[in-house]
Every structure is written in structure tokens, then in C-alpha cells.
Design brief:
Blueprint (H helix, E strand, L loop, with lengths): L1 H42 L2 H26 L15 H13 L5 H16 L2 E7 L5 H8 L18 E6 L5 E6 L9 H13 L2 E6 L5 H11 L5 E5 L7 H15 L5 E4 L5 E7 L5 E7 L5 H12 L1 H50 L5 H20 L6 H17 L1 H14 L1 H4 L3 H27 L4 H13 L3 H19 L1
Parallel strand pairs: 1-3, 1-4, 4-5, 5-6
Antiparallel strand pairs: 2-3, 7-8
Helix pairs in contact: 3-10, 4-10, 10-11, 10-15, 10-17, 11-15, 12-16, 13-15, 15-16, 15-17
Bound molecules: guanosine-5'-triphosphate and magnesium ion.
């Protein structure tokens, strides 16, 4: 055995030696070349040397720039503010959505509100936090003349309410009381609160203890927008000095870098208790706690001192990011709606074409042209550029796999016929038409799903999806297609 291995080892060793020699040669040749180039460059007159340095520096700079462009993370307007969207970008997106008949009223209203608040020149502060952390109580303490509802039950505040508060230095603030997050089934309320936090110049994040993982994520999301955040530890009257100091130290350790300030307060709220009267009767009483919010007032004064001009840019970035995110979602929904319409249109045409085909094979030709048109239209709807070649390759691949499942498709179509007794008398042509319809409908849905997920004409993905759709077509889908075939057949006979 060792005898047989010997030549193999020899071959490997020789190959390694040759490889190493080639590499060494390459290194020596490169060094040599560089050295020669350096000598020639030194021999050049001074007036030629300077431009050559400039050209080399420019080429190196361009190379670095290209590398950076290729390596940097792609721009995204998804949840977060990593890549700021400009006002122009957002308006262009809204315009293109409007052209596609999408309802952009809410997006436009958000921009109007963005401008309106800028013009008023007032500082907006949103109180944000989980339910029952004391947001409404804090508003009562900050804006004494207003009295939002406060309750021990979570989920008391259901909408955004604005109150005018005055700081000790006389500066006015517009305070937004918002619904609490983490309410059971409260996704809609949570969105209302998040939107308002983005519209504000600054956010007071209220917590009533150490922060949970969910609260930590929420702070991280807010901090990404780079607007001032004050983390206020509320209900500190419930803690002893040692506990309170330890809690604050922990918050400082975890959040000092992400928020502007961390303060300990007691917003007040009210407490209910029973007292015994002189005649022995017991009585339930509700008493307002005395608020202690001095550290928060000072923090807010420091923020407001900067003035709206300094606070406005981060607010604008946050609102534009959110409008962009909602615009993206609306664009996806609009594309899905348009795709459905287009699929229905081409499925109907495929059925009518199949029924009208006279010469053997001519139906295939018709469907080929229709298939190309369907692929092109769906790609346009999803904003994916496609080449003629790719469309043909996709149709050829799909055609092949559909041909292999023809028996299955015809069986499904046959079953559909049973559900429509009238169709049976119309002959085999209808069966083929339904089969074509089913294939077209599946192709359309598979392709639309691929384009929506991958933003590319991924033929393998389309094929897999068609396979899944044809293997288990839904009853309503088959009935819908059979109905189309029936209408087409009736249309032909009349
Ligand atoms: N001990 C104590 N209780 C407080 C304090 N602030 C508020 N509370 C109580 O906490 C409960 C909830 O207060 P709210 O002000 O309604 O809380 P919220 O965050 O507005 O609640 P939602 O609107 O439901 O999200 C009430 O029972 C308040 O009395 C405080 O500083 N100390
Ligand atoms: Mg409330």
C-alpha cells in the first residue's frame, strides 16, 4: 500500500514545489518591476514627476472610494434611522405612490404636521413608556392646569393628548401624553405612541423599575434617532434609599451612553386607602401624592435651552424615516394589489386563448406570448428590471416542469369540471383551458411572491413555488378558474 502511495506523494510534492517556485518568481518579478519603475521615475525631470504622483494618488483614491462603495451596508429606510432619508426622497416616493392610485393621505398628513410644528417654534416633548409607568401622572405634575385621566389599571390613555406645561425658567413646552406600550392586544395603541415619539423634539422615557429586555429594545430604537432622551425612573417613593441608589447606578451603567440624562422622580399619582372615622365607621378615600420631579424639570430646561433650531434636524430625520418606512409598506401592498389584478387578467386571457386555439399547438404559441407579457408586467409592477433572455429562460424552465406535471394538472382540472356539471358537456377543450388557466394563475402567484421576496427573477424559486401551488391548489382558486373557463366557453358558443 505504501508502494502505491509513493508516486501520489511524489506528484503532490512536485506540484507544491512548482507552485512555490512560481509564487517566488512572481514576487521577485513584481519587486523587480517596482524597483525598475522607481529608478525610471527618479530619472524623470521634476515637472514630469509631480503630475505622475498626482495621477497615482487620484487612481488610489478612486480605488479606495470604489471599495468603500462596494463594502458599505446597503441603504435602507426600514425601521430605524441608519440612513437618513431626505425630504426630496420621501416626497418622490409619495408622488410615485399617488400615481399608482395608492392612498397616501396619512403620509401627506404626517409631512404637513412636520411642517406645522416647525413653524410654531414650540418644543414638543413626548412622554413614552410601558403602561402604568406614570406618564399621565407626570403630565398632571408638569402641566398643573390640565388633568389627564390616571388609573391603576393599565391602558388608561388611548390616544395622544397635548398639554401645555411651563418650566421653572418660564419656558413653555408642549407635552404629549401617549398610550403605554406592552398592553395586551395594544399594537395599534403602541404604534400611535411610537409615531408621537418620532414627531417630538425630545422624549422622556418613563420606567418604574429596572428595565426589561423589551424596554431596552424600545430605548435602543428611540436612541437610533439621536434625539434627546431623558430616562426617568418614576415611583421612587416606593424604594428605600439603598435600593433606589443601586437601581440608579445600574441604569447609569447600562444607559448613560444612549440617553441624554437619567433622573429619579416621583410623578405623584393618587393613592386610595381606608380610614376609620371617630364613630367607628370606615371610609374609602383617594389622596393625591405629592410629586417630586425637580431633577426632570432641570433636565428639560437644559434640553429646551438649545431651542427648536438645534432640536429640529433629529426630529425631521425621525419623521422622514417613519414616513419612508410606511411608504415602503404601502408600495409593497400596492404592488401586491396590482399583481393580483394582472394575474387575473392574464389567466382570463390564457383561458380564452386556449378555448379559441384551432390548429394543434397554436394554443401553446398564444400562451408563450401571454406568458412573456405576464412576466414582464409583474416585473414592472415590482420594479425589477428583466432582460428578454431571462424571461425566455424562466418560461422555458417553468414550461418544462409544468409539462411533467400535465397529468396532475389535468386531473385537477377534471375534478373542477365535476363541480360544474354544465362544463362536462363542453368537451375536452374546456379541460385544457382550465388546466392552462391553473398553470397561468400559479405562474403569476409564484412569480409575484418571488419578486416581492427576492426582488429578482429567481427561476429556481419560481419553479419551486409553482410546484407547491399546483400540488395543492385551493378550492376557491380552482372554482374561480373553472368559472372563467365556463364564461369563455359560453362566450364562444354565442
Ligand atoms: N407610588 C407611586 N405611584 C405612582 C406614581 N406615579 C403614578 N403612580 C401610579 O401609577 C398608576 C398609573 O399611573 P398613570 O399616570 O395612569 O400611568 P400611565 O403611564 O399614564 O398609564 P397608561 O396610560 O395606562 O399607559 C396610578 O395608579 C398612579 O397613581 C408615583 O410617582 N408613585
Ligand atoms: Mg396614561
Amino acid at each position: 500500500m505504501s508502494q502505491a502511495r509513493l508516486p501520489l506523494r511524489l506528484i503532490l510534492l512536485t506540484a507544491l514545489a512548482v507552485g512555490a517556485a512560481l509564487l517566488l518568481g512572481l514576487v521577485v518579478a513584481t519587486l523587480n518591476g517596482l524597483f525598475e519603475f522607481y529608478q525610471r521615475w527618479q530619472a524623470m525631470p521634476f515637472w514630469l514627476r509631480v503630475p505622475s504622483i498626482i495621477v497615482a494618488a487620484l487612481v488610489l483614491g478612486a480605488l479606495c472610494w470604489l471599495l468603500w462603495r462596494l463594502a458599505r451596508p446597503s441603504a435602507t429606510s426600514m425601521f430605524g434611522a441608519s440612513v437618513p432619508l431626505s425630504r426630496g426622497d420621501v416626497e418622490a416616493r409619495i408622488e410615485s405612490l399617488r400615481e399608482r392610485q395608492a392612498d397616501t393621505t396619512a403620509l401627506e398628513a404626517e409631512l404637513v404636521e412636520l411642517d406645522r410644528r416647525r413653524v410654531t417654534g414650540e418644543v414638543y416633548v413626548a412622554l413614552f413608556g410601558e403602561i402604568s409607568t406614570g406618564k399621565s401622572s407626570l403630565i398632571r405634575a408638569l402641566a398643573a392646569q390640565t388633568a389627564p385621566a390616571v388609573d391603576v389599571r393599565g391602558g388608561t390613555t388611548r390616544r395622544v393628548e397635548h398639554h401645555r406645561g411651563v418650566l421653572p425658567d418660564g419656558r413653555a413646552l408642549i407635552l404629549a401624553d401617549v398610550p403605554g406600550s406592552r398592553e395586551i392586544d395594544g399594537i395599534a395603541h403602541e404604534q400611535i405612541a411610537r409615531d408621537e415619539a418620532l414627531r417630538a423634539h425630545a422624549v422622556v422615557y418613563l420606567a418604574a423599575g429596572d428595565l426589561t429586555r423589551a424596554q431596552d429594545t424600545e430605548i435602543g430604537w428611540l436612541a437610533d434617532f439621536r434625539k434627546p432622551i431623558v430616562l426617568a425612573l418614576n415611583k421612587t417613593d416606593l424604594y428605600g434609599t439603598v435600593e433606589r441608589t443601586a437601581l440608579l447606578a445600574r441604569l447609569h451603567e447600562r444607559y448613560a451612553r444612549r440617553v441624554r440624562e437619567i433622573v429619579a422622580i416621583s410623578a405623584g399619582g393618587s393613592e386610595r386607602y381606608e380610614r376609620t372615622l371617630t364613630d367607628g365607621r370606615r371610609e374609602r378615600v383617594e389622596r393625591e401624592r405629592i410629586p417630586d420631579i425637580a431633577p426632570l424639570l432641570s433636565a428639560l430646561e437644559r434640553i429646551a435651552q438649545a431651542g427648536t433650531d438645534a432640536l429640529e434636524p433629529a426630529r425631521e430625520v425621525a419623521v422622514l424615516a417613519e414616513v419612508g418606512r410606511r411608504g415602503d409598506a404601502l408600495a409593497r401592498a400596492t404592488a401586491a394589489h396590482e399583481a393580483q389584478r394582472s394575474i387575473a387578467k392574464y389567466t382570463r386571457r390564457a383561458i380564452v386563448g386556449a378555448m379559441a386555439a384551432v390548429a394543434p399547438g397554436s394554443d401553446l404559441l398564444i400562451q408563450g406570448a401571454l406568458g412573456t407579457a405576464l412576466v414582464r408586467e409583474l416585473a414592472r409592477i415590482h420594479g425589477v428590471p428583466v432582460r428578454e433572455l431571462d424571461v425566455e429562460a424562466l418560461l422555458a424552465r417553468v414550461g418544462l416542469s409544468v409539462r411533467n406535471t400535465t397529468a396532475v394538472v389535468l386531473a385537477i382540472a377534471g375534478n373542477a369540471l365535476k363541480a360544474f356539471p354544465g362544463l362536462g358537456t363542453l368537451g375536452g377543450g374546456v379541460l385544457h383551458a382550465i388546466a392552462y388557466g391553473l398553470v397561468f394563475d400559479s405562474l403569476g402567484h409564484a412569480l409575484a411572491a418571488t419578486l416581492a421576496t427576492h426582488a429578482a427573477l429567481d427561476a429556481a424559486d419560481v419553479e419551486a413555488r409553482i410546484g407547491a401551488l399546483l400540488a395543492e391548489p385551493q378550492r376557491e382558486r380552482i372554482e374561480h378558474i373553472a368559472r372563467l373557463a365556463l364564461d369563455a366557453a359560453r362566450g364562444e358558443r354565442t
